[in-house]
Amino acid sequence: MSEPVIIMPAIALRGTTILPGMVVHFDISRKRSMKAIEAAMVQDQKIFLVTQRNSRQETPELRDLYQTGTIAYVKQVVKLPQNLLRVLVEGTEKADLLALDQEEPYLKAEVSMIRQEEEELQAPVKAAMHRSIHDLFQQYCQDNGKMSKEMAVRILDIADVEELIQQVAVNLPLTYQNRQRFLEASGLEEQYEVLGALLTNEIDLLGITKELQQKLKARVDKNQREYILREQLKVIREELGENNILDDAEEYRKRLKELQASKEIKEKINKEIDRFKSINGNSAESTVERSYIETLLSLPWDKRSQDSEDLEKAWKILQKGHYGLKEIKERIMEFLSVRSLTHKGKSPILCLVGPPGTGKTSIARSVAEALDKKYVRICLGGVRDEAEIRGHRKTYVGAMPGRVTAALAQAGVSNPLILLDEIDKTSSDYKGDTSSALLEVLDPEQNSRFNDHYVEIPQDLSEVLFIATANDLQGIPRPLLDRMEILDISGYTENEKEHIAKEHLIPKQMEINGISKDMLTIQGSAVRKMINNYTKEAGVRSLERCIGRICRKTARAIMEQGKDKIRVTGKNLSEYLGKERYDYLMANKKDEIGIARGLAWTQVGGDTLQIEVNVMPGKGELLLTGQLGDVMKESAQAGISYIRSVAGKYGILPEFFRENDIHVHIPEGAVPKDGPSAGITMATAILSAVIQVPVRAEVAMTGEITLRGRVLPIGGLKEKLLAAKYAGIKEVLVPKENKRDVQEMDKEITKDLKICYVETMGQVLEHALSSGKK
């Protein structure tokens, strides 16, 4: 029941509720609250503590306060800096707030103390309440872990249920709202219900919090563990001098993100980077792995350049860069036309075959310029190791990718123009066959999955435009030759060389040597004399050297002698190039017995070949001199056999070949000679010497002979006809089967030449011997 009304100093608390039995201190800063403490200390040290509903309100009124508060005994007051008071109080009993006097200097509360009415609860009920609160509090202490064991034991040892409930409520870290609920509870049963609900709620919250903390801790522990391990690894690597590995690995990952490649290739490279990170930086394996990753990252897997489809521009570039070479230019334009129509099309494998100095390499460079392709040159001369093409296994010491892969990395795109220079100069040894390794590279049906032993990832070479060069088709194996499209580049005519010199070589050498057009003039007569008397070649390399020599002498004359202009003519050319080096073996001035003029093909173009035959008394022997090869020796034997078979027709007695020796000689004995095209020439010279009939001096011939006198076709006809023209020959005997070759030649080559097509040795003799002249 209610007690009489008491008026006493009061303090409105913010954010805290004090229960009876609690000993707690709090700070006060409001002047009215300080005055209330002073008034309480003057009287009986008792003060009424009531909680504000809104903790932000500075001057609360009656309606802003809870109805139930606590009368507390002020045990200690301590002054703190900044006008603060720290007050230590002990709650004694609870009371209801009836009225509030807000006049200065402090709050005065009219309160009525609340006495706990004794409830008539049966003993089993109280025992059940005690056990319930005891178990809940014990569970709470186990889950919380923050309450001291001594206090927990002291509270759990309380036998009286009322005291147990009071002590649990006092020592439980509740919010001020929950404490206020407990404070306002009337009677033991209501207090039990409120406290039981609060304990149950706190236990549930602790369980949820613990579960969340465990999950968070597991996540944090994992991240923390990884972080700590990384830091430890970093320190260890720094101690071992391996800190660069981590930096390099991160740099590789950045490059991998920017790499244009398929998902499978990126996954492969990513695995290699992970492996690289785990390797000891000072080991040899680390260096191998680093080189391997850098090679993979440098390759243009899916990076392509845009090919030019401007046919007019391409034609101008080809015309500007090279004179003649009509067949080559037309084939390139055909390729461009197909690419423009289909926007894909497989790139052809072109092989340019011709003598040195005919511009094969420069043609490839011009094609790359015309197509706007990246250009890379691979020199295959002297390559013997298959690994040079396919690459070495990366497990070997000093392993590296093959030349094709290295060329792609150098080009930076997957569709460049790659020049395979001197493909006929490759060879094989115990390390493998280089030409066999090239089969996969140059096969359009296979090179879309080219496998380099070092890279170990298939590469697509189908969009690469391969152009190969060779001097002689005989040096290229048949399977490799079958995969390429052959384009012949024969030697240049005198007129073509003159055009090339004027349009390309002279301007190029003048620019290299710092000579302007006003300083030097080289007349056409000088160019023609250089071609005929200072060079002997199918191409124009020696001619370019002669022009360069003239330019250098011009530069010296200008600098030392102060000359303003130099004019080089055919008459004063020897002043710059010295005496003449070559002179063509000109046609004989008169018909002679036993001397026939043949035509030969050499690496530097065509040449005339004079064959001399003498008949001497002897034992029927055939003597061959002049460094003849096996093929020419056999041609001479075949010629003798044919002549013996037709001896009766020419009045030759049977015993002639038993009583006389025949000596066949080709001058310039120090120069080796061989080839299957001197048969009819030797047979004509031998028959002329035997029957003593002169051979026409103005006739030259080329062709192989059979035992029955048939004339077989030959190769290198263009070079041979050019040689005949330079030597002043008027008539040339050519196998009839070579007629189609002559028809494809420019008229400039056949001009002023009488070409007679022959099928049999009889026709040859009819044209060649003076007695057969009609």
TrEMBL record:
The keyword ATP-binding applies. It is found in: Cytoplasm. Its EC number is 3.4.21.53. PANTHER family: ATP DEPENDENT LON PROTEASE FAMILY MEMBER (PTHR10046). The gene is lon. The lineage of its organism: Bacteria, Bacillati, Bacillota, Clostridia, Lachnospirales. This is Lon protease. Residues 8-203 form the Lon N-terminal domain. It catalyses: Hydrolysis of proteins in presence of ATP. Belongs to the peptidase S16 family. It comes from Blautia ammoniilytica. ATP binds at G354, P355, P356, G357, T358, G359, K360, T361.
